Predict the structure.
Amino acid sequence: MKRDHRKFSSRRERELISIIFDSIPVMITFFDASGKVRYVNRTFEQRTGWSKDLLAKGDLVSLCYPDPAIREEAVSFMLSGQPGWKSFPLQGADNSVIHSSWSNVRLSDGSYVGIGIDLTKELLMEERIRSLAIQISRASEMEQQKIAGVIHDRLVQPLVSMKLSLEGLKLDDDVPGPVVSRLEEVIGSMGDLSQEMRKTSHELYPPVLNHLRIDEVIRWLTEQVREQCDFPITIETEGLFPTLGSEKKYFIYLAVRELLHNIAKHADAKSARLNLKADPKEVTVTVQDDGRGFDSTSLAMPSYRKGGFGLFNIQMRLESYGGKLSIHSSPGAGTNISITVTVSES
């Protein structure tokens, strides 16, 4: 009687485990010590299109990972028993690519259980959000350029003309003394206002961007930051700098300006150093400081999130250009950030 009860309990447990494995919304695989898959659950079949029937007929790992390099990496991870998750592009039965992330558990008999999550929809959504963010960033830069032009052409220039007219009126012998005094006040206010408006226009889009090379623009920017922040910055250049498209030139200007301002205001650094390097294919700007540094494993650094252009935005824009962002930093050891942009237009 007890033996029958144990058989019934064991059969019920196996049935319960089977129901659970086939019902949960994650992919489950069982594979032996050689890496051969022995079982997959229903979710795996539904997400990949590969049937359990293939387990007895062929190597499911080779079907899922037809690329030898990816397959070798996947099998190595499967048999390593390492904790954590690792992502692999898995090929479905219809040749679609399934972006999946896996974690493995080693059992006492030497076999393994693989737990996989299908991230395809999430990655597609992330890519759409990233693309939208890049479009918004580019649109914002175009608007800044337009606003700078409007301020200069439609506001500053007419204001300067009116100021000159009032200065001429002030010199008229028929104008009473009290009126002259009042005119001088108005002229002074108009001069201050035109100067502030011109400064705002130049901050939005400096005119030097229209006729200087990128190395000359960065030299000009460095001088501006030195004066505004009273902060020592040295600059070195290597190579012959090509003519970049206006969008890329403006992007590099904004990115370097953001990095320099953050160093001067938030990094507790004594100085900064810039290195600009050019070759026929790409331009690299490296910004280095001797400040407090940060944990470079994350882009969410408090001292570098202040401002409108942020490292995350810089990284996204660089990826859209086929460029790259390199960050080397650790607490107390300063920071080294390199921005590389391809010369050809994206």
In short: Residues 300-308 have pLDDT under 50 and may be disordered. The CA atoms of residues 147 and 153 lie 10 Å apart.
